[in-house]
Structure to design on (826 residues):
């Protein structure tokens, strides 16, 4: 028998070989830069689809906002509403009829953006029998049930009727799902008689009117967009400063956060998102990089299932609130990034108030537990996802801190780590004691947080966003009244009332809001983070 | 081992070094409860939560990102590793020894069936199989790790046990036993297997090293025990987030070094054991 190589030697050799291969992988990839005028945006995951009506994931939205546009837009880099494809709009006195006037704009296929295209874009989401309704439209279902009809009342004028007044309607028209799509593209390949739907696969090759047009998509790797010369906004953003707009944008998938930082350091990427909090300092210290930040419109929260014992007792929930130290969570599980949240509305959102806070107070918590008949605490399970989310980089560690904090009053928390979709499924079906989740803004209005997360109508078992299953009537009345009030100051008062009441009841604990962070190479000019999600690169320049 | 073999082993310096490392490891595992200054599954008590503090007299290896004492977790991690590795190797032996012995002793179709099955499972890298098993069980516990590691340890063990049995089977004393009319299963149990003990012992030792590595690998990939469990693979994953910050070396180096040293120790010890026990490498 020949003498074998000792396993230890083999193991060392394997490690060396692995490192060598990895090193080669990092060093290679020179094919990424097609031209000096290409901008490479590196991100953690690929898009699901590019059909605005059906997607819900942030990675799809990033690309969609560059290819398609909404009637109402944002002033670049702010949450302030501004004209988009509509130059002006108005509501009737009762808030039930909205009229939008369109600008002169072209789709990438050369057809004109007209009132019929708007009707097509909305009608296909409203009507499940529409040939361009290819899948469920979650955003339409959640937020646009109030739309009664969409009509073209002129070649460039659209009238939308609502069944009841909905004050955030204007803001919600800036939501990516309300993007205007090219009807000509949809119709270009005819209808498949078997399904009654258009053959054109819009989600894989979208046509809109945005600053960049779709070129190709290599699944799991990259999406390529080219500059659209006919974009109406070009003249507008021409005054944006030195440099030229990128002729091409490549959305490249680099899964690992640290690898992505290395990519922008080595010049293989121009913009990256998803920066580890602990890597931010490293990026800041690099003179060839720029770090862009924005206050976040997101919130991480700890939802207790208000329909389950013992969390059905507000005294128990208040005791939990007295025990959990959000500052410790921020320090430990966020590496000191972000800011502690005091209310379910992020601080940068209009309508935010500080309803007061409950400092960590073990004695107060114990007293509350005694009152609730649980002097020795209780046992429960925290449901936790196993992957990072934009509002929570390390869910497991947040759970560990909560577990450790609660132990002081004898509350024994078990941590159940599951895949994100299974966590969502359990939470939506009320199969949890408590869960760690979060929310990022879709539109710039407190309604998007308070109504979605805490109104009793969003606590339907099976499709709940209100995973605390908090069904307080007073809060419901306040939130409904706020939806129907058009006077801004009066609305904000109603939201303040609602937040105070929610704080008192403590159905869930808002934990931390994370700022948005991007790292850019120095040659990228005029880049601004979009506060309400998406990654609009229309006005960006390269030097 | 008789005196001559013990002397042969002791002359082998690397093997002795391996044995020392193992002694240290076993001592840490047995005495973790006494030696560890803090509870490995709780934050260090005190008014302030100590997150990622540098090593000090109170915390020899600092505190981790959750405010747990790294040194205490490292000691208890030895216990976790020793337990999972030993349990999975014993479990694997319980399956592999009868299977391998049966295949080697019986021969024929039974042998072909068993050996082709092991060949197929050997074609997959063991960590992939372990990941698949852990994912199927979908229950984060040490038991899952034990089952997964045991399962991937079985095929190579079956192979080696069969080889050992084949070798012993050809010996004259086995032929003599057969000639005496002793029932075959009795020969296998009373004569053949005891004479295979030496190679099996070597295999078990080497296998324990691999098992520690596989278990740590599973935990590193997030398929291991619950998040607060003191486990070297878990510590390594958590620490690897701070790999770009050299000042936080104490989150990454101690669990990494512990895994590397222990595995090395088992391998050196196992190699030395084989050299001492193998009649053909007799000095």
């Amino acid at each position: 028998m020949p003498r074998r190589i000792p396993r230890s030697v083999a193991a060392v050799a394997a490690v060396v070989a692995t490192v060598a291969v990895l090193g080669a992988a990092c060093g290679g990839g020179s094919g990424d830069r097609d031209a000096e005028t290409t901008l490479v945006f590196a991100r953690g995951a690929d898009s699901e689809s590019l059909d605005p009506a059906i997607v819900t994931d942030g990675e799809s939205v990033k690309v969609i906002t560059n290819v398609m546009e909404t009637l109402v837009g944002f002033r670049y880099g702010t949450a302030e509403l501004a004209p988009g494809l509509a130059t002006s709009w108005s509501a009737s006195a009762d808030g039930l009829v909205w009229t939008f006037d369109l600008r002169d704009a072209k789709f990438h296929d050369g057809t004109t953006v007209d009132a019929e295209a708007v009707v097509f874009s909305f009608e296909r989401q409203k009507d499940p029998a529409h040939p361009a309704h290819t899948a469920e439209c979650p955003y339409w279902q959640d937020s646009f049930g109030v739309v009664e009809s969409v009509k073209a009342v002129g070649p460039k004028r659209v009238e939308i009727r609502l069944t009841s007044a909905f004050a955030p309607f204007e803001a919600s028209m800036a939501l990516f799902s309300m993007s205007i799509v090219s009807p000509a593209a949809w119709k270009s390949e005819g209808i498949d008689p078997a399904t009654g739907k258009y053959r054109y696969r819009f989600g894989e090759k979208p046509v809109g009117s945005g600053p960049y047009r779709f070129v190709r998509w290599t699944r799991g790797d990259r999406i390529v967009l080219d500059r659209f010369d006919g974009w109406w906004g070009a003249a507008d953003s021409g005054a944006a400063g030195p440099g030229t707009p990128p002729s091409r944008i490549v959305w490249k998938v680099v899964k690992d956060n640290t690898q992505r930082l290395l990519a922008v350091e080595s010049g293989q990427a121009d913009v990256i998102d998803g920066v580890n909090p602990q890597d931010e300092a490293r990026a800041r210290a690099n003179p060839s990089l720029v770090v862009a930040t924005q206050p976040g419109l997101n919130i991480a929260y700890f939802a207790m299932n208000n329909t389950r014992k013992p969390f059905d007792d507000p005294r128990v929930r208040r005791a939990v609130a007295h025990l959990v130290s959000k500052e410790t969570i921020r320090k430990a599980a966020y590496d000191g990034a972000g800011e502690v949240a005091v209310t379910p509305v992020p601080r940068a959102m209009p309508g935010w108030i500080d309803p007061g806070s409950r400092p960590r107070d073990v004695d107060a918590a114990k007293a509350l537990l005694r009152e609730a008949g649980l002097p020795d605490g209780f046992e429960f399970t925290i449901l936790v996802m196993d992957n990072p989310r934009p509002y929570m980089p390390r869910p497991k560690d947040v759970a560990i801190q909560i577990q450790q904090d609660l132990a002081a009053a004898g509350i024994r928390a078990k941590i159940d780590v599951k895949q994100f979709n299974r966590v969502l499924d359990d939470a939506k079906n009320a199969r949890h004691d408590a869960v760690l989740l979060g929310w990022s803004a879709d539109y710039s209005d407190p309604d998007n947080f308070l109504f979605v997360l805490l109104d009793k109508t969003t606590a339907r078992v099976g499709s709940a966003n209100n995973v605390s299953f908090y069904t307080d009537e007073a809060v419901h009345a306040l939130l409904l009244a706020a939806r129907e009030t058009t006077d801004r100051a009066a609305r904000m008062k109603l939201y303040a009332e609602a937040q105070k009441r929610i704080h008192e009841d403590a159905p869930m604990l808002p934990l931390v809001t994370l700022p948005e962070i991007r790292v850019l190479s120095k040659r990228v000019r005029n880049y601004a983070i979009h506060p309400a999600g998406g990654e609009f690169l229309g006005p960006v320049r390269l030097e | 081992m008789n005196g001559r073999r013990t002397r042969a082993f002791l002359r082998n310096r690397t093997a002795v070094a391996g044995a020392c490392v193992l002694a240290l490891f076993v001592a840490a595992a047995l005495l973790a409860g006494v030696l560890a200054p803090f509870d490995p599954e709780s934050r260090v008590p005190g008014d302030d939560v100590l997150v990622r503090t540098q090593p000090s007299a109170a915390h020899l290896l600092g505190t981790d990102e959750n405010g747990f004492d790294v040194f205490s977790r490292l000691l208890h991690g030895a216990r976790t590793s020793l337990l999972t590795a030993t349990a999975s190797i014993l479990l694997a032996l319980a399956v592999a020894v009868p299977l391998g012995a049966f295949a080697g002793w019986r021969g024929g179709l039974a042998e072909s069936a068993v050996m082709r099955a092991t060949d197929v499972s050997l074609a997959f890298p063991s960590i992939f199989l372990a990941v698949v098993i852990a994912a199927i069980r979908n229950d984060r516990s040490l038991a899952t790790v034990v089952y997964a590691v045991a399962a991937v340890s079985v095929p190579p063990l079956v192979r080696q046990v069969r080889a050992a049995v084949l070798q012993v089977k050809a010996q004259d004393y086995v032929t003599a036993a057969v000639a005496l009319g002793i029932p075959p299963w009795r020969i296998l149990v009373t004569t053949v297997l005891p004479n295979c003990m030496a190679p099996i012992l070597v295999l078990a030792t080497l296998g324990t090293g691999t098992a520690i590595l596989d278990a740590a690998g599973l935990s590193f990939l997030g398929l291991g025990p619950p998040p607060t469990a003191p486990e070297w693979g878990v510590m390594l994953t958590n620490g690897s987030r701070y790999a770009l910050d050299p000042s936080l070396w104490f989150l990454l180096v101690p669990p990494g070094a512990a895994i590397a040293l222990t595995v090395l120790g088992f391998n050196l010890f196992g190699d030395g054991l084989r050299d001492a026990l193998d009649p053909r490498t007799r000095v």
User: Anything to note?
Assistant: The interface with chain A takes residues 42-43, 49, 51, 65-67, 140, 206, 209-210, 213, 222, 226-228, 241-245, 263-264, 267-268, 270-271, 280-281 of chain B (CB under 8 Å). The two ends of chain B are 15 Å apart (CA to CA). DSSP finds ten helices and no strands in chain B.
